[in-house]
Amino acid sequence: VVDRIGEGDIVEVGIGPANRDPSRWDNPDVFDIKRPKITNLAFGLGVYRCLGMNVAKVEMNHAINALFD
Q1: Is the pTM of this model over 0.85?
Q2: Are the CB atoms for 43 and 53 separated by under 8 Å?
């Protein structure tokens, strides 16, 4: 059976599990600050990249530095 998304259907998308693919990441369930940087789905890709991505990264950098200070 093939289901199709119809007009007016609600689609809920979660990116939580998207970056935990064991075929792409070693130990995907373990936090590893030294994990190699591999493209992930958090901010999208290509023409679908999040316009606020750079702002979010700067905000995260300031927030983490403020915590350490």
Answers
A1: no
A2: yes
